[in-house]
Amino acid sequence: MPYENYDFYSDDPIEETSNPIRRKFKSIFSILLLLFGGTYLVQTTLAANISLNSSSPVEFGQGFTTTVACSGSDSITIKPQNSFVNASGSGDFYFSGIQASEIPAGCTGKLLSFSAYTNSGSSALAIFGGSSTTFEITPTGSSFTTLNSGVTLSELTSTSFTATFDTPVQLASSVSKLTVQSAIDANYSNMGSISFAAADSLGIASMAAIGTSTYTAETWVKLTTAHIASGLIFSGSNSLSIYIEPARNEIRIVKWGVGTGQQIFYIPTLALDTWYHIAVVRDGSNRTQLFLNGTKSTLSYVTDASNYSGGVAAIFSPGAGGELIGKLSNLRITNTAVYDPTASTITVPTAPLTAVAGTLFLLNTTRSNPFVDSSSSPLTVTTSGSPTSSSENPFN
C-alpha cells in the first residue's frame, strides 16, 4: 500500500506557559517552603537532643518543615530568597538569602545554622562568599546577630530577619532542600556587660605587673551620665591606669600613685548611650597609641617607657575626681602588643574577647556571671557597691 501523508488541522487554542524562568524557580523551591501545621511536610526530621560529648548537649533539628529544638512546639517560618544575577550574554536565578519569622523566645541565645543541599547529595553546598556552606545567626531577644561576613541583615525585629547573601554562588536550580539546626551559642553567653552606678567598682586580686614589657589593654565602654570630672576605667598602685575625662575630650594613661608617666590622648566628644571600643597598646620600642573605635587618637604614637611595677587592682573605680556611670563590656589586659601602635587604624573585634598569648586578665562580662576572670589563670574579682549584670553589649 502506498504511504499516505495526512495533515491534521485544529483550531483549538494552544496554552503557552508564561514566564518559564519564574515557574521553573517556583517548582524548584516549592519543596523548600515551610508549611507548618499542614499535611504537605517534606523531608521532616523532628527536633531532638543529641550529645556529641559528655558535657555539651547539642540541640539538633533537621529539615525545613517544622521546628528546631529551641522553638519547642512553636513553628518557625522560613522562606528561601532568590535573585537574578545578570552576566554578559547570560544570567540565571541564584539562591540569594533566607527570610525567617515567628522565631520564639526559646531560641534566644541559640545559634541557628542554615545549609543547602541537592536532592541526593549529603554535602552542604557553598551558598555565599565563595565557599561558605553554613549561614549562622543568633537571636538576642530584641534583634539578631551574626558573625558571618558577606551577609547583609535587614528587616530585623525581635522575631524575624532577612539575610541577603552579598555574593550568592549557588544556582537556585541546584538547591533541593534546606536544613536548619540549633545549638548553644558559646559566644552569646559572653555578650553582656556590667552596669555601674556612682561609687560602684570591681576589685582584682594579685594581677601580675606589666613592668616595662609590651602591653595591650582594651574594653568597650558606654557612658550613661554626663561627667564633668574624670573617672578611672581601671587603675592600681604604680600600675597601668586609664582614666577618661569627657569634659576635656581626653583619655589619659597614668602611672597611678607616683605622679609621673602621664600620657594624654585627645578624642572626639563621646556621646552618651553609645558603645566605644578603647584600646591602648605599647610595643617593644615603647611606642604607645590609643585607638577609639579602631582609629588612632593622636597624629602619632607617644613614647612611654614607664615601669608599671604594680598590677591593675580596680575597674570603674572612684578616685580620679569622680565616678564613671555607665556600662563596661569585656576587658582584656595582656603583656603582648595585640595591635600595631604605629598603624592608623585597627580592626575592632566583633565578638567577645578571648584569651590570647600573654593574657593577664580577661573579664568577659558573661550574662550569667559577669564578675569572673576568664584567663588561663583566673584571678579573684570582687564587687564594691552594687554593679549589676546587663544584657546590653556592643556586639548586636
Briefly, what is this?
This protein is mostly beta strands and 396 residues long.
Fold and architecture overview:
With 396 residues, the protein is mainly beta. The chain is built from 2 helices and 26 strands. The protein has helices at 20-29, 186-189; strands at residues 48-51, 57-60, 77-87, 90-101, 110-117, 135-139, 144-145, 151-154, 161-165, 177-184, 193-196, 201-204, 215-223, 231-235, 240-245, 250-255, 260-266, 276-282, 287-292, 295-296, 302-303, 314-315, 326-334, 359-363, 381-384, 388-390. Strand 8 and strand 9 (161-165) form a beta hairpin. It is elongated.
Shape designation: elongated
Strand content: 35-45%
- The CA-CA distance between the termini, in Å, is 85 Å
Q: Could you say what the CATH topology of the largest domain is called?
A: Jelly Rolls
Helix content: under 10%
Tell me the total number of β-strands.
26
Low-confidence stretches: 1-66
Order of helices and strands: HEEEEEEEEEEHEEEEEEEEEEEEEEEE
| Overall average residue pLDDT | 80
User: Architecture of the largest domain, according to CATH?
Assistant: Sandwich
The assigned structural class equals mainly beta
Contiguous helical run count: 2
List keywords for this structure.
396 residues, mainly beta, Jelly Rolls, 2 domains, seven-stranded antiparallel sheet, disordered N terminus
